[in-house]
Structure to design on (784 residues):
């Protein structure tokens, strides 16, 4: 790479302030987006990161336009860079996301994304702008390329340092409750640093760690020490996160790095000598001792054990299975960015619902499946093509690079990408990790381009000289008039593009400021509700919804704050032994009525209408609006048939109509989906039928046979699902009986699935009673 520096920089000998500003602004995005967060806003992590990303990307647009149109030479450089295969693939990918957004259930909401994630089309456009800037600027300058690599690595150093502080109980900004979780073995500490979740931390540091190793090996002195420190801290922070997929990704990245290094050809003698090995081993022993003495080490041990004990990957394999059922329905245009929460509900199985009661899955937790169901088959294919193209480019470049320094950087980028891809099997992108994915793809192209430029340096120089010799002063003189017209047209186009770019920047900055203000107000409204200050809830909530709300999320959050206030008033009344009737608490009634109105307002553009209906049903229950309770509960059950709270509210609605039998059935189903539902258990007690978890499986199966004989198939299905829950999912006869119920209902595919489980759990008995033939018969019937 070094050999091509002078030639490849093009205009590097003539500093351009606009180029420099664009370059450093791009670096600022890579540094600030992962680091920024604020406790002053409701969504501590996503809101500040989105605001910074949008503001920086909006500022880059007019700068890139000026650089592109202000110089014909620079325009040609950009054109060559942007016509590269990886850039075209990324461009098509963003276009497919645009199509998925337009075809989605709420284009407005999908354009900006939900306030919890902010992964709408607008965020992907920002990623694309920064990607284009990286490709255009680093592919023509070795110096800028290295600066970007160091910026990413040192950002990882800052993130890892903060993770260390969290692990040892020295967090200066957040309480450890945010990243401490209950488990069967006690409290587990899973550090999240500035990323907002331990999984995102592990994924982000996989980008950084191999890059830091490569930069350390390609440098000397203080730079080498900084790179090694970053790599070491990042690796240990990945361990502290307890993210098993990231552990696997880090191990894979290490294997790729060592394999591509080919032992002694990359690692210099100063790295291989015994002193370095001894010092490293001693440091690792000391670090291991310090870590194991810390109570947080229990997390590492428990997460390591779960590699063997957890057969479903915390329910991920079930989620993948259910998500893939969506593909035929969304193959053409996908469900849109952030549309998974709503589109997935009809495909969510009872088994998945029982794994995490009350959870509305936001993604399949697999990047390839996520791209496919969100953006259609085209999106999934392009996502895989982008990764494959980048990996192949890096492998070819690593084999042809002339010098050791170039090879080690290429291997570092390749290892980073491969490690992330492995972890992406278990995770999905958020703002920080999504930005770094686009960045690493851009750097993969740049790294391979540097090698290509180095190998063709002499040929390029000769070609440029030949082109120059073709033109004489006479030629230029003859075309002066044409050239002047061309320049005039060029200047007009330049001004139009720059004016448009500046307008986009102003809009982006305005929207970012409004986003942070609204998030601040919503946070204050919820804190005021907790404190029981009704006037403050109204004040802050009304301010929040006065800002642009294309997703309806601010109205929904305001409704939650109002409902929370109503609940807090009721709780204080109970604690004071006061009868908590609405008539004695007019502010409570007002809060619930306003909550109902705000939740209804959120329905217009939300991508999660099921959440709004559940909240509306709950508020209607508190207001004793029986008709509204029934209507809202029915809608919530229709949208999410496997949500325990929806069935509990439906049970309350039936109970309000004096339909005890239906109320019992809904409450039982709620208990089936969530055995710990206090509310559903309360309904069963009020209908004078307790939930008896001690009943035998044989009795439950026998009862379902009687229900099938009476034609009460839905009830029989629910009872069998109950039996499966009681057995922990290990009940071969339950699966067989459930297959009979599904077949009677005409659900042949579900019947086949249950019989296959029966065959796997009890193969000898299943073969004796002719289960394989039964499956074949159902498949034939299904194909007709």
């Amino acid at each position: 790479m070094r050999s091509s520096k002078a030639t490849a920089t093009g205009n590097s000998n003539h500093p351009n302030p606009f180029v420099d500003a664009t370059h450093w602004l791009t670096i600022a995005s890579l540094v600030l987006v992962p680091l920024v967060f604020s406790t002053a806003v409701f969504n501590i992590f996503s809101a500040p990161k989105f605001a910074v990303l949008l503001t920086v990307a909006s500022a880059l647009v007019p700068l890139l336009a000026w650089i592109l149109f202000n110089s014909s030479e620079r325009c040609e450089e950009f054109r060559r860079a942007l016509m590269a295969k990886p850039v075209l693939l990324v461009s098509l990918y963003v276009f497919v996301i645009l199509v998925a957004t337009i075809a989605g259930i709420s284009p407005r909401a999908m354009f900006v994304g939900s306030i919890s994630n902010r992964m709408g089309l607008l965020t992907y456009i920002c990623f694309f702008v920064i990607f284009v800037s990286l490709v255009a600027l680093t592919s023509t300058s070795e110096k800028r390329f290295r600066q970007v690599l160091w910026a990413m690595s040192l950002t990882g150093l800052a993130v890892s340092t903060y993770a260390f502080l969290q692990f040892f109980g020295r967090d200066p900004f957040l309480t450890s409750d945010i990243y401490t979780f209950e488990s069967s073995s006690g409290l587990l500490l899973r550090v999240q640093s500035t990323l907002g979740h331990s999984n995102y931390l592990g994924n982000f540091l996989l980008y950084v760690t191999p890059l830091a190793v490569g930069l350390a090996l390609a440098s000397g002195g203080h730079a080498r020490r900084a790179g090694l420190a970053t790599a070491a801290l990042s690796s240990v922070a990945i361990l502290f996160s307890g993210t098993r997929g990231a552990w696997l990704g880090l191990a894979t990245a290490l294997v790729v790095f060592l394999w591509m290094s080919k032992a002694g050809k990359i690692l210099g003698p100063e790295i291989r000598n015994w002193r370095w090995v001894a010092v490293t081993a001693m440091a690792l022993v000391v670090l291991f001792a310090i870590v194991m003495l810390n109570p947080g080490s229990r997390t590492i041990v428990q997460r390591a054990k779960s590699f063997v004990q957890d057969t479903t990957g915390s329910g991920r394999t079930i989620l993948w299975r259910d998500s893939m059922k969506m593909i035929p329905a969304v193959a053409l245009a996908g469900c849109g960015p952030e549309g998974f929460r709503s589109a997935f509900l009809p495909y969510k199985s009872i088994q998945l619902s029982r794994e995490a009661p009350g959870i509305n899955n936001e993604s399949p937790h697999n990047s390839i499946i996520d791209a496919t169901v969100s953006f259609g088959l085209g999106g999934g294919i392009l996502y895989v093509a982008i990764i494959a193209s980048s990996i192949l480019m890096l492998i070819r470049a690593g084999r042809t690079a002339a010098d050791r320094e170039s090879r080690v950087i290429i291997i570092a980028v390749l290892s980073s990408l491969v490690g992330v891809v492995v972890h992406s099997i278990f995770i999905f992108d958020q703002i920080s990790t999504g930005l770094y994915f686009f960045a690493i793809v851009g750097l993969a192209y740049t790294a391979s381009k540097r090698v290509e430029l180095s190998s063709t340096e002499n040929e390029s120089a000769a070609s440029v000289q030949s082109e120059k010799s073709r033109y004489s002063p006479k030629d230029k003189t003859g075309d002066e008039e044409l050239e002047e017209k061309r320049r005039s047209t060029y200047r007009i186009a330049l001004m139009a593009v720059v004016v448009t770019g500046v307008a986009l920047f102003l809009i982006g900055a305005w929207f970012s400021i409004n986003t942070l203000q609204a998030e601040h107000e919503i946070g204050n409204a919820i804190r005021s509700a907790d404190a029981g200050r009704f006037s403050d809830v109204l004040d802050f909530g009304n301010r929040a919804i006065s800002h642009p709300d294309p997703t309806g999320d601010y109205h929904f959050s305001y409704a939650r704050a109002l409902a929370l206030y109503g609940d807090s008033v009721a709780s204080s009344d109970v604690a004071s032994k006061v009868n908590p009737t609405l008539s004695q608490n007019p502010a409570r009634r007002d809060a619930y009525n306003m909550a109902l109105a705000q939740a209804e307002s959120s329905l217009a553009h939300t991508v999660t209408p099921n959440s709004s209906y559940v909240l509306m049903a709950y508020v209607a229950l508190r207001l004793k609006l029986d008709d509204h309770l029934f209507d809202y509960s029915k809608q919530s059950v229709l949208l999410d048939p496997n949500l325990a709270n929806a069935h509990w509210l439906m049970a309350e609605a039936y109970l309000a109509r004096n339909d005890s039998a239906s109320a019992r059935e809904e409450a039982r189903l709620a208990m089936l989906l969530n055995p710990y539902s206090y509310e559903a258990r309360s309904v069963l007690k009020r209908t004078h039928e307790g939930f008896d978890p001690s009943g035998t499986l044989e009795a439950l199966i026998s009862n379902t046979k009687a229900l099938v004989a009476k034609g009460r198939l839905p009830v029989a299905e629910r009872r069998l699902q109950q039996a499966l829950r009681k057995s922990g999912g290990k009940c071969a006869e339950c699966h067989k009986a459930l297959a009979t119920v599904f077949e009677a209902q005409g659900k042949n595919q579900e019947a086949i699935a249950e019989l296959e489980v029966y065959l796997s759990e009890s193969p000898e008995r299943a073969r004796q009673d002719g289960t394989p033939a039964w499956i074949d018969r159902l498949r034939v019937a299904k194909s007709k």
About this structure: The longest strand covers residues 180-183. The two ends are 63 Å apart (CA to CA).
